UniProtKB/TrEMBL annotation:
It comes from Streptosporangium subroseum. Residues 60-87 have a biased composition (Basic and acidic residues). It holds the Pfam family Zn_ribbon_9. Residues 56-94 are annotated as: Disordered. This is Uncharacterized protein. Gene3D superfamilies: 1.10.287.1490. Residues 14-194 form the CT398-like coiled coil hairpin domain. Residues 204-238 form the C4-type zinc ribbon domain.
Length: 246
């Protein structure tokens, strides 16, 4: 392939712009905010699961408390009814009177036991509700921190994308000055190795840092100025400049 020396030198400008674009892409992929957001999102998800568990426990205890309180009311109503019968004097038989008094004592004891159960459930429910409050607060705090990180990420993205757009515009202008066949070769090499062209500095390829053999140097010296030279080692386009010393 042949191309004007000026067009070949434009490949170096293009390679430099592509290097900037690659660095910007790498910077975009490796923003510290991205890792922070991932970590915070994982923590928020874990706490959200814990919140569901604590809320479920609180809900179960609420139902358990309602049932226990209903049992207390049932026993209390029976005890009050028996006490009214006892106080009314309707029971005259000594045996029935003793049985009624025994039942009242038993119901009062049962009521006391059930009230203890209610208190125990209330304490457990209070602890569960406290855990819910604590977890929700922690989740909200982490979500707020994640929001700050997301704002930082978005601001960085906007800055990087703006800079990339400016560099891409320069790249488009530079590409327009390069013949289509030379540009296609450059793009193919760049796709394969990341860099499509490199400067020939003395007897060394600036792309792979390999020193060229004497035979290769002589071949390049003998080549016409418009011949497109390739590095034997990395196959990049070798661009000859004043620094080449040839």
């Amino acid at each position: 392939m042949k191309a004007a020396p000026a067009a070949q030198k434009r490949l170096l400008d293009l390679a430099e712009l592509d290097s900037v674009i690659d660095r910007l892409a790498h910077r975009r992929r490796t923003l510290p905010e991205l890792a922070q957001i991932d970590e915070l999102s994982a923590r928020v998800a874990r706490i959200a699961t814990q919140v569901i568990g604590a809320e479920t426990e609180s809900s179960d205890l609420a139902r358990e408390q309602t049932k226990a309180e209903a049992d207390v009311d049932s026993v209390r109503i029976r005890a009050e009814r028996d006490q009214k019968r006892l106080d009314s004097g309707q029971v005259s038989s000594p045996k029935d009177l003793a049985s009624l008094q025994s039942e009242i004592v038993s119901l009062n004891r049962r009521q006391s036991d059930l009230e203890e159960v209610v208190l125990e459930i209330m304490e457990r429910r209070e602890a569960a509700d406290g855990q819910v409050t604590k977890l929700v607060a922690e989740r909200n705090e982490l979500s707020a921190t994640r929001g700050v990180a997301e704002d930082g990420r978005d601001a960085a993205f906007a800055e990087i994308d703006k800079e990339k757009g400016e560099v891409q515009a320069k790249r488009d202008e530079t590409s327009a000055d390069i013949p289509a066949d030379l540009l296609a070769l450059y793009e193919k090499i760049r796709e394969q190795s990341g860099v499509g062209a490199a400067r020939l500095q003395g007897a060394r390829c600036s792309g792979c840092r390999t020193s060229l053999s004497i035979a290769e140097i002589n071949r390049i010296k003998a080549a016409s100025h418009d011949e497109v030279i390739r590095c034997e080692e990395c196959r990049r386009i070798l661009v000859r400049t004043a620094e080449s010393g040839l």
